[in-house]
Design a protein that fits this description.
Layout: E1 15-18, H1 24-36, E2 41-43, H2 53-63, E3 66-71, H3 73-76, H4 79-90, E4 95-99, H5 107-113, E5 119-120, H6 127-136, H7 162-169, E6 189-193, E7 197-198, H8 206-213, E8 220-224, E9 234-241, E10 244-251, E11 256-263, H9 268-282, H10 299-313, H11 318-334, H12 339-356, H13 359-375, H14 380-392, H15 396-409, H16 414-426, H17 430-443, H18 448-460, H19 464-477, H20 482-494, H21 498-511, H22 515-527, H23 531-544, H24 549-561, H25 566-584, H26 589-601, H27 605-615, H28 623-636, H29 639-651, H30 656-661, H31 666-682
Parallel strand pairs: 1-2, 1-3, 3-4, 4-5, 6-8, 6-9, 7-9
Antiparallel strand pairs: 9-10, 10-11
């Protein structure tokens, strides 16, 4: 069969493909598809008889980022394939087995590959997605079990963390670089870029793009000012007017260091990179230290990219995300190998997933994250995007690894620090997470998202009072962000200050309605025993996010405690949506607990206990998990277990005063009170 393309030659990451030539009709279409997706592929095009195997194939294996091994009867019988894979294992290369048929490995390969997660071409309905993930460095089929994210619960109002997560994966956010390990250390220079003066929005966000381009320079801490005074060694001021980019670099004393005037009629992208290089030279950087820049893209495409990125920096409504989606898609259509646009699309799809829980958005985010990694493996923005993808699919430890890699590339990135902290928190390493939250604040004390993320962490640990103070600091820095208002309400609610909570939630829903805020208003009605209004708010939340099982479950609870038959229909509708969530994150103990409570609400004891036991299999310290397990046992009439779990819930920090207000505990508390009275009478 004719070879589909030339094997990759170059310094970028690539995959080595090991296969039997008898399988080329199956393998060639697959590697051609991978190549079209931006994956660099080395494969044996037919080495001439005079070549030495070690020199040609051996070097290709040693330098490959990973090995794709297509397994069939032919490949297992091939001496060449056996030598290649054993050599790869000896060189500690990562080998991804891909089964073309159901067959057992040979004895020698069993030793090296028995513990490796494999792909099965004819058995996996999402094989292409997983193949692309494996080729680019990861696959969702190889998830690492991890501690769970703290899911917003029925009784713990829903904190909005998306803005925090999304901003850290945008390629425009703060990327700071210092000398890498093993390189000569130098004095760290602080540079602040002030907001540029623009005659139109077509160059909006240009200062952030300059910052991103500069991120490869050693020992340079770069911040984009929000207009407030920031201490720095140097300040860059600029403007884009009349198709001309002007900029001036001044010292902290106001002394002019350099100035530029560049025509940008047709080449704003090129002008941005020219300015970045000249700026580094003006700061005394040598040419060896200058970063490798992205490919230049056409003027119209670059302006579209800037607009899409500016949308991600704004309010993260579904409408805004869809506009960003359109922009990034247009950029990739014009420049399919532009890594920052793929990273932007990854973040956009993740944002849409967090809004609506559509599994297809996770799949698309995965594809573009891995494409960005293949095209821009040295760009910290890509590793931040990948870190969030891992975190939101239950692979928190891999998220830690990705953010750590980002910090190797950009040691002063507060966004990478914040992402690392959130991932550590989800592995249960709360003390280490706290350290990185504080480090992010130290690096960027004027960045509201650092405080916002810390506040969410404090809520998850039960420190409501501290969280209120932290959120108030974030609000002072960004008073127009409805997510902050929502979370101030959450913190007040958890502190038992319900009236204050409702005030903040109403302000938030007026600024930007969202499913979580409607659900929180529903919770406020629930605690006031206005179950009809509570159900209406939960149903409104479901309309905003129809694939999120939680809002149907909440409506079902409101009907359940008010003895209305509608609860059964809502519990039944919630179960398949929750099971779909487990397809994305099979380690999500909170969702297992949710499903257990849904079955308990239906009186299905057998299924309820299956999911309850799975939720508690790791001895959960998650308040949400224990909450739902407690009410599940109560609904099933198992008062002994419900009482034990209630004690655990209180130990974990659930406010005692919330118990009397929460109708889910009415039956349990009444039975416990009756038993206590009987005990007193007996004594």
């Amino acid at each position: 069969m004719e070879k589909p393309f030339s094997a990759y030659v170059g310094d970028d990451p690539y995959v080595f493909v090991c296969y039997a030539h008898a399988d080329d009709q199956v393998v060639y279409p697959e590697i051609e598809w991978l190549n079209q997706q931006g994956v660099n592929v080395w494969y044996d095009e037919g080495i001439s008889a005079g070549r030495i195997w070690r020199a040609e194939v051996g070097n290709a294996i040693k330098n490959a980022s990973r090995i794709l091994f297509y397994i069939s009867r032919s490949s297992l019988a091939s001496d060449h394939c056996s030598r290649e894979i054993n050599f790869a294992l000896d060189e500690l290369r990562e080998v991804i087995p891909i089964y073309l048929e159901d067959i057992a490995l040979t004895t020698d390969l069993q030793v090296g590959l028995s513990s490796v997660q494999a792909l099965h071409r004819d058995q996996d309905p999402r094989y292409r997605d997983h193949l692309l993930g494996a080729a680019a460095g990861s696959s969702r089929s190889t998830r690492t079990p991890s501690a769970l994210p703290t899911q917003p619960s029925r009784r713990v109002p829903m904190a909005l963390a998306f803005v925090t997560g999304l901003a850290m994966i945008m390629s425009v956010a703060w990327w700071y670089l210092a000398p890498r390990q093993g390189e000569q250390s130098e004095e760290v220079v602080n540079l602040v870029i002030e907001p540029f003066v623009l005659e139109s929005e077509s160059a909006l966000g240009l200062e952030y793009e300059i910052q991103r381009v500069l991120s490869g320079s050693l020992g340079l801490i770069i911040r984009v000012s929000d207009g407030s005074a920031i201490q720095a060694d140097y300040i860059l001021r600029g403007a884009v007017q009349n198709d001309e980019l002007t900029a001036q670099l001044v010292s902290q004393d106001g002394e002019s260091i350099a100035s530029w005037r560049i025509n940008v009629t047709n080449e704003l992208s090129k002008a941005t990179r020219t300015l970045a290089r000249d700026l580094l030279v003006s700061l005394g950087r040598t040419h060896d230290e200058l970063p490798q820049l992205d490919e230049e893209i056409p003027q119209r495409t670059f302006r579209t990219y800037l607009r899409a990125m500016s949308m991600l920096r704004g309010s993260h409504s579904v409408e805004t995300l869809n506009m960003a989606l359109g922009g990034f898609s247009q950029v990739i259509g014009d420049a399919p190998r532009y890594a920052p646009a793929h990273a932007g699309l990854c973040s956009t799809y993740l944002g849409l997933y967090l809004e609506h829980k559509e599994e297809s958005n996770i799949q698309l985010a995965e594809i573009h994250c891995h494409r960005a990694l293949t095209l821009g493996g040295q760009d910290p923005t890509v590793h931040n995007a990948l870190g969030m993808l891992y975190r939101e699919t239950g692979q928190a430890q891999k998220g830690v690894d990705s953010y750590s890699r980002s910090l190797e590339l950009a040691p002063y990135s507060s966004d990478a620090m914040r992402g690392l902290a959130e991932s550590l928190s989800r592995t249960g390493a709360n003390a280490e997470a706290e350290k990185w939250y504080q480090e992010a604040i130290k690096v960027e004390p004027s960045h509201w998202e650092n405080y916002h993320a810390l506040g969410i962490h404090q809520i998850s640990l039960g420190y409501s009072g501290l969280a209120i103070e932290t959120f108030q600091t974030a609000f002072a820095l960004a008073p127009d962000e409805p997510t902050i208002l929502n979370n101030i309400g959450v913190a007040h609610f958890m502190a038992g200050e319900y009236k204050q909570a409702v005030v903040y939630w109403r302000q938030a829903v007026e600024q930007q309605p969202s499913a979580s805020i409607y659900a929180n208003l529903g919770t406020s009605y629930f605690f006031q025993r206005d179950f009809k209004s509570a159900a209406e708010m939960y149903i409104e939340a479901h309309k905003q996010a129809p694939k999120d099982h939680r809002y149907l479950g909440l409506a079902a609870e409101a009907y359940y405690v008010s003895s209305q038959d509608e609860h059964k229909a809502y519990f039944r509708r919630a179960i398949p949506l929750a099971l779909a969530q487990l397809d994305i994150d099979p380690n999500d103990d909170t969702t297992f607990a949710n499903i257990g409570s849904y079955y308990a609400g239906l009186g299905d004891e057998e299924n309820a206990k299956v999911f309850i036991e799975r939720a508690m299999s790791k001895g959960s310290q998650n308040v949400d998990v224990v909450y739902y397990v407690t009410i599940s046992y109560s609904r099933l009439g198992d008062i002994k277990m419900a009482s034990e779990m209630l004690d655990n819930l209180i130990t974990l920090g659930y406010e005692r005063k919330l118990l009397d207000l929460d109708a889910n505990f009415d039956v349990l508390l009444d039975v416990m009170k009756e038993k206590s009275n009987q005990q007193v009478t007996a004594d």
